Amino acid sequence: MMRSCAPGRVFQVSCVALLALSALHLTVTLLYYLDIHVYTAQMVRRIGGLLISQPTSSPAGISPNFTAAARNRTLATTSPLPLQPCPETPPRLVGPSRIEFSQSINLEDVRQNNLLVREGGRYTPSECTALQKVAVIIPFRDRDEHLKYWLYYLHPLLQRQQLDYGVYIINQHGEETFNRAKLLNVGFMEALKEDNYNCFVFSDVDLIPMDDRNIYKCYNQPRHLAVSMDKFSFRLPYKQFFGGISALSREQHEKINGFPNDYWGWGGEDDDIYNRIVFRGMGISRPDGVIGKCRMIVHRRDKKNEPNPQRFDRIARTRQTMQNDGLNSLKYKVLQMRKYPLYTFIDVDIGGPGRPPS
Ligand code: BGC
User: Fold this and answer.
1) What DSSP character marks residue 114?
2) For a FRET experiment, which of 5, 211, 311, 333 has its CA 20 to 30 Å from that of 58?
């Protein structure tokens, strides 16, 4: 009995084992198949993301011999991939552009053309991590028409430059003589209350760069950007000229105790800033004369911004005055801060010559 039953039992056990093995094989194949599909979908998304963020360079990390560890990382997460740093040379720059001031500008159109700009004039590139966080500071009073041109030309340019930036219009309240450098110091302090900017571009409202390769960022030396203005026949008026548009990192600005607060009226404050930079052992960095071309909106001299007769005496004494006149002596009162779609407007009382803010 035992002998006749044995072969049947062995056959039965073998069949069960074979069936179990087939089921296991089927399951493994199915799991592998599903796994490949999830993996492929992740890869397609990943490659797509990289292609958008770096259109000119070959996407890193997508070689065929993608390691098992990398593959597991991809499968384990569904959160967006960390962005690559933006390239040193932004890929969407167009070079020289035509700048003109004959057409009238409608701010709503400017807004519609810059939908990625957030309230207060803030922008952050979505395709890569910006190399610097830049506050653009504009000293201002009664120049609404100029501001429209500035916003019209500069927002698209700054976005092509892939900067994480904010635009701050610092309005001198009241009728006192204008003080450009003090307003710039106010902009520096106020922008830092909003975000940890590491670079500050100080620009006149009537100056538009003609070439987007003139990057609004900071370098290892203070940067002068308005190097060849139409007003000066596209040349530097003199070697030490530091007017119009300049860029200083937070460290550079603090190292020179900021800008002077005591230049009331037109002229001299930019020469004082140049002196401060040199006296603190730094030099000036500049783009070449082609990239650094700028156009200035022609206008009459503003009231209450007459040439400052004291400027020559003051420039001669920068070495002494810079110790106690600057960020460490800055006094002002913010009267109002308003966030507009394309800029932040800060109305400020900075006092007057010999008069502190009330
Ligand atoms: C003034 C500067 C000005 C330059 C160019 C100089 O005499 O002191 O403030 O930027 O001229 O106009």
Assistant:
1) T
2) 211
> Which residues are designated catalytic?
204, 206, 266, 269-270, 296, 299, 301
Does the beta carbon of 244 sit less than 6 angstroms from any atom of ligand 1?
no
The first and second tokens of residue 106, run together, are: 């409608």
| Ligand 1 centroid – CA 42 distance (Å) | 58
30 — pLDDT class (breaks 50, 70, 90)? low
The pLDDT value recorded for residue 66 is 32
Q: Among the atoms of ligand 1, which is closest to the Cα of residue 242? A: 10
φ/ψ of residue 344, rounded to 5: -105, 130
Report whether residue 270 contacts ligand 1, using a CB cutoff of 6 Å: yes
Structure tokens at 257: 């105790």
- Is 33 or 184 the better-scoring residue by pLDDT? 184
**Ligand 1 site, residue 272, Cβ cutoff 6 A:** no
Closest of 140, 222, 252 to residue 186, by C-alpha? 140
Could you tell me which CATH class the domain 107-349 is placed in?
A: alpha beta
Smallest CA-to-CA distance from 265 within 319, 302, 313 is with: 302
Q: Round to whole Å and give the CA distance between 92 and 70.
A: 31
DSSP classification of residue 327: G
Helix axes 180-194, 269-279, angle to 10 degrees: 60
Residue 90 has a pLDDT of 98
Which whole-number Å values give the CA distances from 337 to 144, 171, 183, 190, 260, in the listed order?
A: 17, 10, 14, 10, 23
Q: What are 161-212's pLDDT values in tens digits?
A: 999 999 999 999 999 999 999 999 999 999 999 999 999 999 999 999 999 9
Beta strands in the chain (DSSP E): 122-123, 133-140, 164-172, 199-203, 207-209, 223-224, 228-229, 245-249, 293-296, 333-339, 344-349
